[in-house]
Amino acid sequence: MSDAAATLAQDRQKLEMSALSAPAVIFTVAMIAFPVVYTVWLGFQNFSSTGKQSFAGLANYSKLVSDYEFWHGLWVTIALYVLSLVLQLVFGVWLALVLFHAKRLPGIVRSLFISPFMMPPVVAGMMWLVILDPSLGAANYVLQTFGLPPSDWLASPTWVIPTVALIDSWQWTPYVALIVLGGLQSLPPSVYEAAQIDGASPFKTFQRITLPLLLPTIVTAAILRSVDLLRFFDIIYITTQGGPGNASNTLNIYGFRVGFEFFNIGYASALMLTLTAIVFGAVLAFNRLRGAVAW
Amino acid sequence: MKARMLATHVALPVLAIAAASAQAHAADFEWMKFKGKTVTFLANNNPVAQALLTYKADFEKLTGMTLKVDGYQEQQMRQRLVTVMNANSDEVDVFMTLPSREGEQFAAAGWYGDLTTMAKTDVAKDYDPAGLSQALLKAATFGGKLTSMPMNIEGPIFYYRTDIFKKCGIEVPKTIKEVEAAAGKIKTCDSAVTPFVSRGLKPAIAYTFSNMLHNIGGTYIASGKSNLCSAKGKEALDTYSRLLRDFGPPGVVNYSFQQISALYRSGRAAMAFESSNELRTVMEGGARLKDTGLLPFPAGEAGQVPTTIGWGMAVSSRSKQPDAAWYFVQWATSPEVQKKMALQGIAPPRPSVAKDPEYRKWIDEEPVRKEWQAALDVLATKGSSEVGYPIVANPESREFIGQAVQDLILKQKPIEQACADADKALDALIAQK
Questions:
Q1: Residue from the list A136, A157, A246 with its beta carbon closest to the beta carbon of B262
Q2: CB-based contact A50:A224 (threshold 8 Å)
Q3: Which among A34, A38, A42, A49 is the top mutation candidate for probing chain B, defined by the most B β-carbons within 10 Å of its own β-carbon?
């Protein structure tokens, strides 16, 4: 077979493969694109309380600027995000180090350590709602047993954000630990051997070798958790529904209520697209950071 | 939208026509008319639907139809409905609805099928549409169209611990002021119990607060404007929030019916203002069976104006088979089925069922059931179905009522500011068309 004929046959094969995979590709792209395009379109619509629809132009987006609940929701979202992410990264790295060095830890104990993130968030939310109930819950019982004052936990406007961050961190720290553990297991042993020969202390080894080498893995974990944390919904919906007052009313909760309880789908779409843009921004920022710390 | 139950002056002409027509058409009525069809029912997974669906097989046997149940928790059910209706989908034939909450909104959106004609032209001999609570039917009538048929009757009632009252030497309160006085005495007499508990969760507050507002003599709207800053409005806001702040459990701002029932059932609350529907939950385990008394909420300056609502069954305006759907609605709200549901603790919206000997026997088995029925009788005769603002944006109005109450419970605002902020937001809602 001449070269030209071989190239022709290859091209034909490529074309056939493309034609065969095209329906699946088109279907997948449509499934992703349609909801996005539809939401963008809804963001330009006005829905009355009765569902009557009219073109609103950019009115939904200009309404965001003067909407106190939007700015408050943004603040709550960011506060919850920063607090939860810091807790999960710090304790996730610590847990990963414990699991990495405790080689003799039985498999069942390792499984228990990482089990919370396998629990559906709704179940976790219900469980913590009962534990943290100021009257009937176990948390205050434990505090009072040790002579400490009881807390209102989820019912306190001051403590609700830290409490929700703690619940989410209880659930997702093991997930971060699992990612970091994978990173720890892939670190080159030769670097540690060199550090040992040079007489580096365990703290110096962690500070100068482990942490810098782990940074790309930690940033990856941060990206994955950022996407979830900025869209925080389930645990808040189960435990506080955005309260007390609007103290835990994240953008996602606010958008849900505007859309599904007050039926203003247009404004809810604008809120959700703004939140999507924030999520994209955070992911892009972390991606750049990952590039900077790669080794 | 005030609904004085069973008062003759509110009887709907449409029901009179329906009742007369029922006689005319009963002879032609054939339950097997839609044999082979499938009716989809969007249900709220609450005790009312659970009791009804116990008899699902009876419906299928009677009609030869298949009943497909799409069940969700209350808010998720509404989410599903919003999606289905906005998509103009015929996936749902029948759905559960609370006319007091979303009636105006759904009616204005055109989501309810008009049952007026069906109730006239296609009624079984024993259906007796005129035997249904006239006030609940009126509450479900918008723009002259009957939009749903009542499944139950319910409202917040006052649960109190007879043993604690006796121990502390307290008389059963007859007025709101006496409730507060009783709570004060219990606080000093038995510090281990919460003196008073009611709803403190923002979106849930309107259900119980409305009863207090109406008992005190307040109204939500006066001269087309929100009226929370009126003297009566402020008195209601102040009294409700003070009762919960000074005598309620810690964390009451997250309390809805689940937490209230759990607290009272566990013996850690002396008085609870909660739904009549919670009787079964409160009595679970039997610990509260012998030491609980029940009353409509004690009177204010305007007497007793209890909140009375009921779940309804509506036919979707998008349904391609409204006639078959109506058969299911009719079966589910028939005297026979409602009697069976009543024996499971679902208060019947038919006075005739409430008087049925078998039901009376069940009621007479326990004194607390007798008191429950007596309280429901007051709800049926004196009740108002106004929960939150009687406007299209009723669900949203409940947010602002709840916010004002929470602001006061948490001492985040003085009453003047809390009510003024609420009135400002509510005036904007009232102005919406």
A1: A136
A2: no
A3: A49
Contact A155 B252 (CB under 8 A): yes
How open is the CA angle B82-B84-B88, to the nearest 5 degrees? Answer: 110
Sign of dihedral through CA atoms B389, B233, B297, B281? positive
B378/A287 Cα distance (integer angstroms): 65
pLDDT digits (tens, 9 = 90+) for A203-260: 898 888 899 999 999 999 999 999 899 988 999 998 998 989 889 999 999 999 898 8
Regarding whether B174 and B262 lie in a shared domain, the answer is yes
Q: Kindly report the CATH number assigned to the domain that includes residue B298.
A: 3.40.190.10
Residues B300 and B328 in one domain: no
Task: Give, for B146, the enclosing helix (H) or strand (E).
Answer: strand B145-146
Task: Of B199, B103, B180, give the one whose Cα is nearest residue B401.
Answer: B199
> B414 pLDDT exceeds 90?
yes
pLDDT-derived band at B381 (thresholds 50, 70, 90) equals: confident
Distances (CA, A) of A209 to A102, A118, A215: 20, 32, 10
| Residue B377 Cα, gap to closest chain A Cα (Å) | 32
Helix (DSSP H) and strand (DSSP E) numbers for chain B: 20, 13
* B268 close to A135: Cβ distance less than 8 angstroms: yes
Three state DSSP letters for B29-64: CCHHHHCCCEEEEEEECCHHHHHHHCCHHHHHHHHC
Give mean pLDDT, residues B247-265.
Answer: 92
pLDDT category of residue B190 using cuts at 50, 70 and 90: very high
Query: Does the structure show a pLDDT above 70 at B12?
Result: no
Q: How far is B107 from chain A (nearest CA, A)?
A: 8
pLDDT of residue A77 exceeding 90, the answer is: yes
Q: Which residues contact B371 (CB under 8 A, 6 or more apart)?
A: B293, B294, B295
Assign domain A67-293 to its CATH superfamily: MetI-like (1.10.3720.10)
Q: Which distant-in-sequence residues (6+ apart) come within 8 Å of B347 by Cβ?
A: B152, B153, B154, B276, B277, B354, B373, B376
Mean per-residue pLDDT, B373-396: 89
Chain A residues with CB under 8 Å of B191 CB are none
Query: What residues in A contact B266, CB-CB < 8 Å?
Result: 136
Indicate whether B219 and B119 sit together in one domain: no
* Residue B274 identity (one-letter amino acid): E
Measured between beta carbons, the chain A residues lying within 8 angstroms of B259 are 133
pLDDT band at A202 (very low <50, low <70, confident <90, very high): confident
Cα-to-chain-centroid distance, residue B340: 20
Question: What is the rounded average pLDDT of the residues A26-55?
Answer: 88
How many CB atoms within 10 Å of residue A264? 25
DSSP B271-329: EEEEEGGGHHHHTTTSTTSSSEEEESPPBBTTB---B-B--EEEEBTT-S-HHHHHHHH
pLDDT of residue A140: 92
Whole domain around residue B259: which residue ranges?
A: 156-307+383-431
Q: Which whole number is the average pLDDT over B360-376?
A: 91
Q: Evaluate whether residue B375 is within a structural domain.
A: no
